[in-house]
Design brief:
This protein is of the alpha+beta class. 50% of the residues lie in helices and 14% in strands. The strands form three sheets. Strands 3, 4, 5, 9 and 12 form a five-stranded antiparallel beta sheet that branches. A four-stranded antiparallel beta sheet has the order 1-2-11-10, with no helix packed on it. A three-stranded antiparallel beta sheet has the order 6-7-8, with no helix packed on it. It is elongated.
Length: 344
């Protein structure tokens, strides 16, 4: 969704993002080929290409998995997250090229069906089978990356399906550990694989620690059942502060001298609305630009998405939120920012 309430199609940001993505992949493949030719002058073209595509897919998957925690740790990484699905499709295509070369080189010339050969040819650990199922998961994610599938599968089912990326990553780690690392004794390969794994784990743990500290914040209840959520001064203008109330994350927005609170979960892909901002009077999700009116939680026509709202009030520079959410799309009167809490 855009500011004018029309679906965003092929805008400049998408073009820049995709140009950088394609350029980065092409540069990596070229550099990999040059370095490999220098270090291993007798390598065959087939092996060079399969390793180039395979390592590019594995590296890109690391980048994709790091986008989420990086965006949670600092908003400057959010642009990487907007079109993450494009990177996922590119990762699948690189993996498909790698697997196609593997099958053509090692499995197509025998009497056994090439796909069946993948399952019966491993003498030791089934590293090729690990790679096959990882590629299958990446295929499912790439095939359902369009919003058509999000709408028809529903957000919870679509999100669960795409969480399988972690299963694909685990399978690829096993694929590399029992495949390439068993054949290559160079510490460079081992070091690169370990460095990638440690980076992904460290970023996710750090982001989880930040999220846990947010949810663990203890809030005080007023006698009338409202929760003392935050100070007005702690909420940036046209932005929000996220608090956890009764087990649910609530985004409290300050805009045009008013305070409103809505559920932090966008109905598009469960994006964090509280990390977005008010654009043309609408809360704009930082992930894909879906918008909601802060006082009703409803998207402007012709869109129909709705999020829950919360009743709010302001007393002595503090924002109080009722812990019971209103039904999605229910109007909740904004609280006026008191004179003493207005920014100077």
């Amino acid at each position: 969704m855009g500011v004018a309430y029309v679906a965003v199609q092929w805008n400049r940001q998408k073009k820049v993002y995709d140009a950088a993505l394609v350029g980065g992949v092409a540069a990596y493949l070229a550099l990999f080929a040059i370095v490999t030719e220098m270090l291993f002058p007798h390598v065959t073209e087939e092996i060079l290409l399969m390793r180039a595509f395979g390592s590019a897919a594995f590296l890109l998957l690391h980048v994709i998995l790091c986008m989420g925690p990086l965006a949670r740790l600092h908003p400057k990484f959010l642009p990487l997250l907007y079109n993450r699905r494009h990177a996922g499709v590119a990762c699948f295509l690189l993996g498909l090229a790698h697997s196609g070369l593997i099958v053509a080189t090692y499995h197509a010339a025998g009497d056994v069906n090439p796909i069946l050969s993948v399952f019966v040819s491993d003498a030791g650990a089934p590293f090729q089978i690990f790679g096959f199922f990882a590629l299958f998961i990446l295929f499912l994610m790439a095939a359902t990356s369009h919003d058509f599938w999000l709408a028809n599968l529903s957000a919870p089912v679509w999100k669960s399906l795409h969480m399988l990326v972690y299963a694909a990553y685990a399978l690829l780690v096993l694929h590399v550990a029992f495949g390439v690392l068993q054949a290559e004794l160079s510490p460079i390969y081992v070091g690169a694989a370990v460095c990638g794994l440690v980076t992904v784990l460290a970023l996710h743990l750090r982001a989880a620690k930040k999220e846990t500290s947010l949810d663990a914040e203890r809030l005080e209840y007023a006698p009338d059942g409202f929760v003392d959520a935050t100070a007005v001064s702690e909420i940036p203008e046209n932005r929000a502060r996220i608090v956890c109330i009764a087990g649910e994350r609530v985004a409290i927005f300050k805009y045009a001298g008013k305070i409103s609170a809505v559920s932090n979960v966008c109905q598009h892909q469960n994006g964090p609305l509280g990390e977005g901002k008010i654009v043309s009077g609408c809360i704009t999700c930082p992930w894909h630009g879906y918008q909601y009116k802060p006082d009703t939680g409803a998207s402007p026509p012709p869109f129909r998405e709705k999020v829950s709202t919360f009743n709010v009030r302001v007393r002595n520079g503090r924002v109080f939120v009722h812990p019971k959410a209103n039904p999605a799309g229910t109007a909740a009167a904004p609280a006026l920012v008191e004179e003493g809490a207005l920014p100077r």
